[in-house]
Description:
Elements lengths: L2 E5 L3 H13 L3 E5 L2 H11 L3 E4 L8 H10 L8 E5 L4 H9 L4 E4 L4 H19 L7 E6 L2 E8 L4 H10 L2 H7 L3 E9 L4 H11 L6 E5 L4 H7 L7 E3 L2 H7 L2
Parallel strand pairs: 1-2, 1-3, 3-4, 4-5, 7-8, 8-9, 9-10
Antiparallel strand pairs: 6-7
Helix pairs in contact: 2-3, 5-10
Amino acid sequence: METVLAIDDDKTTLGILESQLSAFGYRVFVERAAKRGLEIAKEFVPDVILLDINMPVMSGFDVLANLKKDKATRDIPVIMLTSNKERTSVIEAMRYGISDYIVKPYDPDKLNLKIKSAIAHADIKKSQNDDIFIEIARKGEMALIIMRGSIKDNGFKNDVKTVFNSFFMKQVNGKVCVFDIRNMEDFDSNDVKEFVSLLKFFSDSKIKVITGKHYGSIVSNSDIENTVELYLSYGDMELASI
C-alpha cells in the first residue's frame, strides 16, 4: 500500500484529504504542524507528500528546504496543494524540484492521478545514474529522455552525440518523445536556443517537454510552444491526455 503524507495547517482540508485518499486505497498520514510533518516524513518516508505553502511557524518552502537537506527525505516526491496561485510561488516551488503544483479547490480524481504519476516517475528516477547527463527510459511506445546538468557542459554535449545516434533516432521516428529537463541547471536565452536546436533533430517525432522551473525561460525566449507540447509536470501531461 502506497503512503501519502499531507501537511496543511487547515484541519478541514486534512479531514477531507484523509477521507478521499483512504478511499483511493492509500495509507494516509495527516499533520497540521509543519515541524511534526518533517519528523513524520523522516520516520515513515512516505511515497509522496502533499504540502501547503502558507502555514504558521514554517512555510511550505521552509519544509521543502528541510526535506532537501536530509538524505532520507530529499528524493520523496512533493506535490504542493495550496490556495496560493501566484506565478512567483509556482516558480519558487519548482526550483525546489517539486513533482507538481495543484491549486485549491481541486478535483479528487485529478489529485489521485497526479499522486500516481509522481510516484511512478519517482520510481523511474531511482534507477537513473546521476553521473550521466542524458538517460533513456522506455514506457510502452514512449521514449522518456531524462536530462540533467548544464547544456553548456562538454559532458552533456558528448552525451548528445553518444545517446542520439542513428540507431536511436530510427527507433523513435514517429514515436512520442518526452524530454524531462526539470533537473537541468537554469536556462539563459542562449541555453534555450541550443535546446530548441536539439529538439529539431526530433522533428519527425511527437515531442513533449516536462519543463518544471524552466517553463518561463523557454516561452520567453522561443516560440517552441507552437510546435512542441510543454508541461510543468508529468501530472499535467497525463491529465492533458485524458
